[in-house]
């Protein structure tokens, strides 16, 4: 069984291109109702979410360099710094996978370091997009994140060709041990699946199906 109630593993997520203020209000209200750990939203809506969540313990998480990860490092760092200034509690940035695959591991590490430096003590999760990587590259990505002092390694954006897998989470866990936490995201839509990822080593679950997970109901939402 999980170490804590499953709702406290969930980053309740709304990152679709057509996200509206109504969507933000809905997921914030759901996050309060079900006491989720955080909402994960586009940075444009941080201020609105902070207002809606002001009387709760729910944190605000946003994404940086999303979903491709190949914007320049100064742009990522500025985007992250501005998000924190607007009220974000946690940052999920996308790793520059092209740098990793090109063997430019120092550059990939600096990319993460600069974002971490820009946000200070706030939590940084690095999305490594496991569906784009070989097992060897997943291990390399984990080492990049550890060297850059990232707090979490996150499996997926949910916008690529594949989602989180149990095998990838286990490999990440074997690589980082307890030196970083793991966020499994992408394709996790029901209670049993979420539980399997937690058993494999996930410390956080990124999903737009948080309500279905905690209520153990069937979910017809196939996003994220």
From TrEMBL:
The keyword Glycosyltransferase does not apply. Its EC number is 4.1.2.4. SMART domains: DeoC. The active site is at residues 92, 154, 183. Keywords: Cytoplasm, Lyase, Schiff base. It catalyses: 2-deoxy-D-ribose 5-phosphate = D-glyceraldehyde 3-phosphate + acetaldehyde. Catalyzes a reversible aldol reaction between acetaldehyde and D-glyceraldehyde 3-phosphate to generate 2-deoxy-D-ribose 5-phosphate. Belongs to the DeoC/FbaB aldolase family. DeoC type 1 subfamily. This is Deoxyribose-phosphate aldolase. It comes from Mangrovimonas cancribranchiae. The lineage of its organism: Bacteria, Pseudomonadati, Bacteroidota, Flavobacteriia, Flavobacteriales.
